[in-house]
């Protein structure tokens, strides 16, 4: 009887657990090495504790990196349907919500983790927690996996240690460093799916205020994206779902030192002409009222002085009838095209993902095996593939973990 392959997996996150199950089911003897006190800590925090585990509309257009097309073959091999079949077979019922987002029916991320842990135990995966991997050395066609206490020997290694986002949940650059020491190239990394800082101080005055808006992103003068949703003003700039979604493109522009700005439309369902007619009507019916009062009932009260200030109006109490054509035009411009220059992002602590990572052209998209080091595989966020917000990053973790686990086990 041939001896089973010994596979060491570095990282007990989404991709590492998927790889562990698939490799163990294929007959390998798997050891999962996790530096934190438990596996799946980040998974528990996903989707605000509800785990947005995939998206029914997942396609390659939702992925970014130096070569996003790399993800195509991997996602096709283990697509959303197969992912849901995998989880359903383990007992997880799921539900599709707004914008195609898939969640566990129970609304609990812990359900996803519980069934993965149960299956790993059933498949006899050896799980070692509080076990950081500090180095990997290729020797005599095998690997020495160095831990802070001793080493273990493996036939194959899968690096599934994730990225630097959310250090409190295990994020670090350590998995990238392991790959770099083995000769792999890293692309520049930066926080993604993160709130953004804007210049000027106007958002400070309205921090905490949420409004429905359409947000358009311009990078280097070109339109780079548009999102509709609840915008949140903060003391440092802007947040909320549309900003988080656009933050990856904005981050890439900032990395390239391109100017980037948001144009916010607070009245996406109104044309400029409709808004002008509404303001006219209000001024005609109450010509003596102060200009700031004219906007009450149309615009959130906290926004009114900020909008008028942005429109260059100093005397907010001037009679509405005295407003000039230029002032009215400026108000409409602010309501429909309020410009915010982007000057940075919040830190890794506030990011949901890492953009950048190990260069994908050095790996096979079919097997996730390294072209540089035979028997070395990588999966998940450590690779330079980042999904949009909406379940796409976990889908990448499942699909790439599946491919790496199967190939490492020799299937
Ligand atoms: C707050 C938050 C909410 C999110 N919500 C969603 C969501 O709803 N849907 C979605 O699709 N995505 C979401 N994401 C992103 C998603 O969680 C990640 O993309 C995904 O977990 C990446 O999986 P991974 O296996 O590559 O890495 P991780 O899940 O980060 O796992 C990597 C593991 O490796 C361990 N590790 C690292 N280095 C070493 C080492 N040297 N030795 C041993 N162990 C090591 C880490 O401790 C960690 O446990 C969210 C992220 C955050 C931070």
Oligomer: single chain
Bound molecules: flavin-adenine dinucleotide
Distance between the termini: 18 Å
What characterizes the major β-sheet? 6 strands, antiparallel, barrel
Biggest sheet: strand arrangement? 13-16-15-14-17-18
Q: Please mark out the parts with pLDDT under 50 across 5 or more consecutive residues, or reply none.
A: none
Give a quick set of tags describing it.
single chain, 24% strand, six-stranded antiparallel barrel, 2 domains, 13 helices, binds flavin-adenine dinucleotide, alpha+beta, 411 residues, FAD/NAD(P)-binding domain
Structure description:
By secondary structure, the protein is of the alpha+beta class. It has two domains: 6-190 and 351-408, FAD/NAD(P)-binding domain; 195-345, no CATH class. Helices cover 33% and strands 24% of the residues. It has 13 helices and 21 strands. The protein has a six-stranded antiparallel β-barrel with strand order 13-16-15-14-17-18. The two termini are 18 Å apart. The structure holds flavin-adenine dinucleotide. Residues 10-16, 33-36, 41-43, 45-47, 51-52, 132-133, 160-162, 165-166, 169-172, 174-175, 352-353, 380-381, 391-394, 397 line the site of flavin-adenine dinucleotide.
């Amino acid at each position: 009887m041939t001896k089973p392959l010994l596979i060491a997996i570095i990282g007990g996150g989404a991709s590492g657990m998927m790889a562990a199950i698939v490799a163990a089911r294929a007959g390998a003897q798997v050891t999962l090495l996790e530096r934190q006190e438990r596996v799946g800590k980040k998974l528990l925090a996903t989707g605000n504790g509800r785990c947005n585990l995939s998206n029914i509309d997942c396609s390659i257009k939702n992925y970014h990196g130096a070569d996003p097309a790399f993800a195509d073959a991997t996602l096709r091999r283990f697509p959303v349907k197969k992912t849901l079949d995998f989880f359903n077979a383990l007992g997880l019922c799921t539900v599709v919500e707004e914008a195609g987002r898939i969640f566990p029916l129970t609304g609990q991320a812990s359900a996803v983790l519980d069934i993965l842990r149960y299956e790993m135990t059933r498949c006899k995966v050896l799980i070692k927690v509080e076990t950081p991997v500090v180095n990997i050395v290729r020797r005599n066609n095998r690997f020495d996996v160095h831990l802070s206490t001793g080493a273990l020997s493996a036939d194959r290694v899968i690096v599934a240690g994730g990225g630097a986002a959310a250090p409190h949940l295990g994020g670090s650059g350590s998995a990238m460093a392991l790959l770099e020491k083995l000769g792999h190239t890293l692309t520049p990394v930066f926080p993604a799916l993160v709130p953004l800082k804007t210049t000027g101080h106007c958002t400070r005055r309205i921090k905490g205020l949420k409004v429905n808006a359409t947000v358009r992103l311009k990078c280097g003068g070109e339109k780079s994206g548009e999102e509709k949703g609840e915008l949140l003003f903060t003391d440092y700039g802007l947040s909320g779902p549309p900003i988080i979604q656009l933050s990856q493109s904005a981050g890439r522009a900032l990395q390239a030192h391109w100017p980037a700005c948001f144009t916010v439309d607070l009245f996406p369902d109104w044309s400029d002409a409709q808004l002008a007619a509404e303001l006219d009507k209000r001024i005609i019916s109450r010509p003596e009222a102060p200009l700031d009062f004219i906007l009450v009932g149309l615009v959130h009260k906290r926004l009114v002085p900020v909008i008028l200030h942005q429109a260059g109006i100093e005397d907010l109490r001037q009679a509405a009838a005295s407003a000039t054509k230029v002032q009215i035009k400026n108000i409409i411009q602010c309501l429909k095209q309020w410009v915010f220059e982007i000057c940075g992002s919040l830190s890794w602590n506030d990011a949901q993902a890492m953009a950048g990572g190990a260069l994908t052209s050095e790996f096979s998209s079919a097997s996730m095996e390294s072209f540089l080091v035979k028997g070395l595989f990588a999966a998940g966020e450590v690779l330079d593939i980042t999904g949009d917000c909406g379940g796409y990053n976990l889908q990448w973790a499942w699909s790439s973990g599946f491919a790496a686990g199967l190939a490492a086990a020799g299937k």
